[in-house]
Amino acid sequence: MGILDYIFNRGKQRLSYDFDDIFKDVQQNSMKSIALETCANYIARTFSKSSFVFFCNETKKQDIWDYRINHKANPNQTAAEFWSEFVKSLIKNGEALAYINNRQEMFVVDSYVQKHSLTGDVFDISTIQNVPVSITAHYDEVLFIRVENDNLETFIDDLWNDYGSVLGRLFQNQKTANQLRFHMELPRDKIRERARDLANQASDKSEDTKESVSEKKESFLATITKKLENDSVVPILLPKDAKYEEYRSQTSIKVSYVEDIAKMKQQYINDVADILGIPNGLIHGDLADNQKNYDTYIATVIEPLAQKIVSAMNYIIFNRRELQKGNKVQMVGFKNYDLFSLSSNIDKLVSSGSFTRNEIRRELGYDPVEGGDVFLLTKNYMELGSIGKEKDEKT
């Protein structure tokens, strides 16, 4: 194939697929997925650090469920992996379903159909962990959570309509930045030039009937434009009497749009994070006001989701009678506490008899200790019931 054939794509088979549109769709879907994955993964990682604390007298139930929800959810996942996957599905899809079998093993469901009923919804489950199944589960056999972001995908699509064209232009500018372009002319001699002219004169009549002059110009311009868009080195062969000139500054300074692209992608992620209520500084690891942002994130994003999960787990683990007796589970481990900065306040809460040591330990995410459920009073940490006895002994 000659150089002219290469430049003008002669002799190549034309494909019927519009690959430009396909690649454009892939690029857009990829950017949207990056933003959503970044935010969903951040929330999921927060939940993977949490644990459940039991407040109950049902020792047998506590032993079974504590192992499942805090250690090993199913044969293929630890509890941390399960909760991370469950919350990630919840954020991305607006709802999440976990199937619980008769061994209290919990599995995140990939695909299902929900059938609504006033006596309790029924779920037809078809895929679990990429394994085809056929399970019909009632509401008390599943963990089903729905959140108020059903239209998250729509919001992200609308947001991309604003960012997509701008980001696409930046990518295109980066591809053509610092591009090497040159004009060349083939060697000529009188004999070859005369022979070509005679051949052109003989074929002008037949060719002009097939393709007009304007169509030839449009085809030439389209070919050159495509080369400029996609190739880093572009040779430009000009037809006879044609001229090519670029209207741009001739400078040796290299042009780069990489920083602009990075800023645009970061801003897009920021807007998706705003939809979910995540402070932007946390997503990008900024140190400024980190603790303040984290506390806001826990209060506005994590705790509402945790309350939904805790409410559903209490319904699954305990029956009505057990719940009325005060049996319950609670999620802890979200907040980062500096125990030394809290030591003075902890001392006041315990020494005043307002809280037991185990109540404080559970709030801080630590396991209870033996004897920690006794109320203490005064800074001597005496048992509340022993104060009167000590006075009687002295008299």
From TrEMBL:
Pfam families attached to this UniProt entry: Phage_portal
InterPro entries, sorted: Phage/GTA_portal, Portal_HK97
NCBIfam families per record: portal_HK97
The name this protein goes by in its record: Phage portal protein
Taxonomic source organism: Streptococcus anginosus
